[in-house]
Amino acid sequence: MTEENEIALENPAVKAAIATAVEASVSGLKTKNSELLGKLKETTGKLTQFEGIDKALSIKPAGQAGDIAALKAVLDAAGVAYRANVSKESLEKLLAEQYKALR
Length: 103
Fold this sequence. Notes:
Layout: H1 12-48, H2 53-58, H3 63-78, H4 88-102
């Protein structure tokens, strides 16, 4: 290269121009990274509600009372409150609402 085509990398103005160009190039990536980390944290928080559900779902007592007990076990594992004398239909509705909230 000839001297007239060389860039003085030690020149403060050149350093500032390079820093500005780099910052402009990566600012969008930093923003997207922060957005994705926020979504990951939110999703992880939602998933912790359902720890232990696999175990609760494996309980399969027979009959209407068994169905209610299984639904209550799932909702308990998710930390969802319900009335003591709740119907099976209400429990199913609560479970469906929790599922929709995760989607």
